Amino acid sequence: MQNRAATVACFMKALVMSNNTASFLTRIVDELIATVDGNNFADHTVIFPTRRAALLFKLQLAKKLNKAILLPSVLSISDFVEYYIPLRVSEKKEILLDLYAVYKPHFPDYDFTSFAPWGEMILSDFDEIDLYLVNYKDLFADLTSYHEIDSVFQGDEEFKEQLKPFFELFMADKTSTLKQNFLYAWHALPKLYKELNEVLEKNNKTTAGKAMKQLALSPEIFLKNLDCSKTIIAGFYALAPAEQKLFEFILNGKGKIFWDADAYYTNNTTQEAGLFFRKNVLTQNSFKWKETYFKDVPKNINVTGVPLITGQFKFLADRLKTLIAQKKFNPDKTAIVLPDEKLLPLMLQSLPEDIEHVNITMGFPLKETHLYRFIETLNALLKQIPNTSKQKLVPTSALGNYLAHPYASLLKHNMCNINDAGLSIPLIELPENISQFLKLQITTPVFERYIQLLTMLHDAMESKHHEKEIAGFVLNELLELRTMVAPYAEILDEPSLQMLISEMLDTTRIPFSGEPVMGLQIMGLLETRTLDFDNIFFLNVNEGSVPKSNRHHSFIPFTIRKSFGLPLVEEQDAITAYHFWRLMQRASEIDLIYNTEVNEFASGERSRYLLQLFYEMKAQFSNWQVNHQIITTPLHRYNYISPGIKRDEHLTKHLLSMVAENKLRFSASSLNNFIYCSLKYYFNEIKKIRNPDDTEEEIDNKVFGKILHDAVSKIYAQIIDVEFDKNIAAQLRKSISTFVKASIAQEYDKHYHGTGYTVIIEKIITEYIERIIASDLKGVTFSPHEIETEKVVVCDIGNGINVKIKGVFDRIDKVYDGYRIVDYKTGGDEVKDVKKPDDLITNPNYKVNFQLFLYCWLFLKSHDKEKVNAGIYPLRRMEDGLKMLKQEQIADHSMFEELLFTLIRKILLESDFTMTTDTTRCKHCPYKDICNR
To answer: In which element (H, E) is residue 895 found?
Structure first.
């Protein structure tokens, strides 16, 4: 207990600033004590913007009085509203489900996964309508009816004129599909608003915005038990009209309101940080407190530009170590501010070990944990196991990724031998514990599947392990979500439930447990409200980060938002500016660190606040020391040695052992890699240096091709051994959209929102498949015989060396005189005339010919008496249809076999691995940096 008291005392001491400027919370404590006779605080109420401010205020009040007292009711504004409103303020996810229930009858074609993004936007708009006391019927007026608009804005000509240009857009051309769709949705919004609130009220629920509106419009009813004369409102800035009306009621009852502002930005109309103070009627008669902190408090401000976010954390760690060594670091008076929660994991890794106590107000993203990555790895595997086929095939690459994760061993799923399995392996051929687990994961309803998985992991983890606590926390969140969605079972299918679970996993933050008033504080900008520190470290002070560039999305057009007084971008920027500069008011030592490079966290451009600091405030306040430096990475000269691997006995033995252990196999793509550049082959096939998967939002060529191949194979798999004709073509065309969307959802857009870039990709792939079907109709009569088939052949290439050669065929057709192999090409590949046979294994320009000859050779190894040819569909140039291989260029397939074996012997026994001399081949090579190309 004594340690706890000492901790609280230490932090309370920090709240009274060392530069003799009282913190905001200290002043509020003093104000309350000065207005209360004796120790009776119980009938007083103090309202803050945040719960953290409320907690620290209570601790400071108790410490200040240093005796047993009855504390006042100290609440955040959200808790205050919920306390006095009889209805339950529901979670946003629950309200989203209620909205979907009333949305569905108006838009029956939309399932929940399509609705959710729109629904969240609509709910946000509804909340703003309530907070800003806007009449929803007026807001959602008929945009095509001047008569209705005139009646709504009668007597306000200026208001009407502002809106008229927007309304005229819908009067000029009613034929636009986009406009018609917008109008249809716009007309439904007032019905949705009305029906949603009726449903919520019927179930004794409400939204946060609606609760505030009710409290503001009828305070005499809801606040009859509140003694307004003993109520203090503290630390607010931007007030919505509903909040302002509520506070006016309390102040009229002789309550008190206190602000925290500096005259510098409140008096100057060009300063965005003071925008809401200047237009707030509550500050006109009495403005407590507007001080001159900027003018009176000396500041030492260090602005540092550092390349990359990791560089910023390295710089911060070094700075903290220096201050600790110089005994100038007091953690209880210091805050590190992160404008983005994504930065928290890196921040925690960078903190010096000398800092004993750290309090983190930001939750740790679940996405940064091993548990989340394991769930994503398992989901990626399950997604690739087809549900429809009788024999479920498990892709070996995805299975290998799953088994390689440490958590797989917790479930006793150890690495099994999948080297000989090829591209896929039947589920029943896996070890029983793995196959039974995957079978249950595939067949179990989605909620039960996740609950079983998390329960198994939680039980298997060691006690007191932090990941066990995370698994338990996520399991509880999942159980709560299942309880929440249970009443909506009739309108939610499995994909919708999966979407809700995925969103929960993506957005869950693991709360840190610990002492909230002790040690170094790590927080987001909004969490600093009402708090003050001597020393501040603010990271990533870049434009786009502070202030943020990602804006609030709304269904309500800008013109209408502006006309009805709903918040706009400049007001959002004003809020960020106020919180930024308010944090600096009482601080004396400030480090502002920005990123000089362009990446996902920053634009490389300094925040406007830094420019304001350099060119305006530095000149105005003589007691501010502003230092600016840019940290650069030193360049080191080095003697570059061209990479290359010389042939020796050890290398040959190593390659032969890889072949014997089935760690080195040969395919058309790997052999073409060797022909293209033998060193690239070495890096990729022998050293297994893989190019990391891109995480870009846009689809690259590889993913595009994968989506197209997957969709085509599923479409043609419907007609195996069925003769292709006009009727079959018509049947396939009807299924294109379904299969393309499914393939896109599998590889790229897991919820398939059907918007933006996804729509473009869908249209392109659909067009390509239409071309394939049309071209097949023009060609010879055929029946699709095999789809996405892998052929593997083991051959003795001489000297007793047995190698495995494989190929994956997009399609094998039965034609009148035998078989043909079809390969789809989305790039610029083409079949060329081979001048001499040796070109196939020496010249990469003939890679398509080499691939097609290899496919024919592989096919004939199991169909030696059949006739076969191969060709490609060049999807960018489909005018001439299928481009077939001219087999007469090679005397027979035994000649190709000799060329093939010669190439493989060259790789295993003879060749050095060196860079290609043709540097144009290096342009898109993933290893070009290694080769200094």
So the answer is: helix 893-905
